[in-house]
């Protein structure tokens, strides 16, 4: 479908460039029949017939991915929000209110053949208070005859009226240019992510076997860098070839030349761990399979999750694990790893080389999840079913509503839920768990953020 085609286009054009851009949100408001759905479809580049007059369709899919002029944004058709209908004017004003609170910019659509009614005047009063940019589209300007009339819409105090014909496409490009100009340029989180070998942090408490593994990997497989061999300066990173790919193990200098426990060694070890995690895209957290999980292990795991990096758990020294230890581990890990049930576990021995070749596939899976984005339409289709089946718990007598959701970012995948009320942590975790059941994301943290309308 064209929906899929658009998402494919976004994926293709955006993959590297837009990787870390949060997607700004544009909400479209207006009275029924002014042509909002037609305009939304025009912007999305679809036939208007797709949405029109199909009951439930706009309700289920209120948010869409739009793309124009190299920018992508989330387009929200507020027709689907259906604020409590206590009179048209009040309900459109309420729509505008929600739009102002949740979106980054608002587009008010009116019917130029009718002009500004008392409803538009009321809505304009609401929107003039907005700190967010507001655009005004005068729709159904199918030919020049109505152009003169649209000038009178300046009096709404919302700036320049944009005459368009959603039906025929007239001037919709100009409107889109204005929309793009009005939307905030999203902040860039990780400016430095670039092509080249994927970056891996090999971390874990002292003596867990990090140097042994690195030596094993660089010894058995071919170590690409030691191109600086012969110099006294260690390269900060090691390039290691694993399973047909080259990987950059970041910040490994300290691993090769072991600085033995001087004063503050633990502090420096922890600092090194933090630096390596920040510089990496995926972390291999090494755990000692022969020993119970320690506080130190959990601190390292927390660092990875908080930094939003993807993760592989390597249980090292598997050669020392016997039957008894295996049994003990099962319970221990259920408790110890509650924060990262989504991480893949690989049982290895850096000493014997057991299963170390399973690391590369696990790294690939984790990175794939880290890079994955669920298209907005698909996300909302799934979410509206989930919420219909299990609505958020009532808090102080109120039932929070989830208006729509979008996956605003990747690396790590980040969902933003637009709601009418606070969602408790338990319910957010529920959503995350169901999201993973449906869409996967093995090996990557997933963030669930909530934007609440006051
Ligand atoms: P919504 O209720 O605001 O979403 O309005 P719709 O998109 O469902 O449109 C309402 C009616 O107006 C439909 O019959 C459309 O075909 C018609 N319409 C929408 N845009 C235009 C336009 O630019 N020109 C004309 N002449 N009719 C339009
Ligand atoms: P690091 O401090 O994390 O870099 O740990 P090292 O690689 O220096 O290893 C610490 C000790 O554990 C060394 O004596 C290693 O020989 C030993 N070791 C590392 N990996 C294994 C393993 O898989 N099995 C066993 N039995 N010993 C290991």
TrEMBL record:
Keywords: GTP-binding, Nucleotide-binding, Repeat, Ribosome biogenesis
Keyword Nucleotide-binding in record: yes
Superkingdom per UniProt: Bacteria
Pfam families in alphabetical order: KH_dom-like, MMR_HSR1
Gene3D superfamilies given in the database record: 3.30.300.20, P-loop containing nucleotide triphosphate hydrolases
Residue stretches making up the EngA-type G domain: 24-187, 198-371
Assigned protein family: Belongs to the TRAFAC class TrmE-Era-EngA-EngB-Septin-like GTPase superfamily. EngA (Der) GTPase family.
Oligomeric form and interacting partners: Associates with the 50S ribosomal subunit.
Function: GTPase that plays an essential role in the late steps of ribosome biogenesis.
Name listed for the protein in its UniProt record: GTPase Der
Annotated source species: Amycolatopsis rhabdoformis
């Amino acid at each position: 479908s064209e929906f899929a085609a658009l998402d494919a286009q976004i994926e293709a054009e955006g993959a590297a460039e837009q990787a870390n851009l949060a997607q700004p949100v544009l909400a479209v408001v207006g009275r029924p029949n002014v042509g909002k759905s037609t305009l939304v479809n025009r912007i999305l580049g679809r036939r208007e017939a797709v949405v029109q007059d199909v009951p439930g369709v706009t309700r289920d899919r209120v948010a869409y991915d739009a793309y124009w002029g190299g920018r992508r944004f989330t387009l929200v058709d507020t027709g689907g929000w259906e604020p409590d209908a206590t009179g048209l004017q009040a309900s459109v004003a309420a729509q505008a209110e929600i739009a102002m609170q949740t979106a980054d910019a608002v587009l008010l659509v009116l019917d130029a053949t009718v002009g500004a009614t008392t409803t538009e005047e009321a809505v304009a009063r609401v929107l003039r208070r907005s700190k967010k940019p507001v655009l005004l589209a005068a729709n159904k300007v199918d030919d020049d005859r109505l152009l003169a009339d649209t000038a009178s819409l300046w009096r709404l105090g919302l700036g320049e009226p944009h005459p368009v014909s959603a039906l025929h496409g007239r001037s919709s490009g100009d409107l889109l240019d204005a929309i793009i100009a009005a939307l905030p340029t999203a902040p860039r989180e990780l400016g430095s992510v670039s092509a080249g070998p994927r970056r891996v942090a090999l971390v874990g408490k002292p003596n867990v076997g990090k140097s042994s593994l690195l030596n094993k990997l660089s010894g058995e497989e071919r170590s690409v860098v030691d191109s600086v061999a012969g110099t006294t300066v260690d390269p900060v990173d090691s390039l290691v070839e694993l399973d047909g790919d080259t990987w950059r193990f970041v910040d490994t200098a300290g691993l090769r030349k072991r600085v033995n426990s001087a004063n503050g060694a633990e502090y420096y070890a922890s600092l090194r761990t933090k630096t390596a995690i920040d510089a990496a895209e995926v972390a291999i957290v090494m755990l000692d399979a022969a020993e119970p999980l320690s506080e130190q292990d959990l601190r390292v795991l927390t660092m990875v999750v908080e930094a939003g990096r993807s993760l592989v758990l390597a249980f090292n020294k598997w050669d020392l694990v016997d039957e008894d230890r295996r049994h003990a581990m099962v319970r221990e890990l259920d408790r110890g790893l509650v924060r990262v049930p989504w991480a893949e576990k690989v049982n290895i021995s850096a000493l014997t080389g057991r299963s170390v070749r399973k690391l590369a596939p696990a790294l690939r899976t984790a990175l794939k999840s880290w890079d994955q984005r669920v298209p907005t339409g698909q996300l909302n289709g799934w979410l509206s079913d989930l919420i219909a089946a299990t609505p958020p718990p009532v808090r102080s007598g109120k039932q929070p509503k989830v208006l729509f959701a979008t996956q605003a970012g990747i690396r790590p995948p980040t969902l933003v839920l637009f709601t009418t009320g606070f969602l408790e942590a338990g319910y957010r975790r529920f959503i995350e768990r169901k999201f993973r059941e449906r869409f996967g994301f093995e090996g990557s943290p997933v963030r669930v953020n909530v934007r609440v309308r006051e």
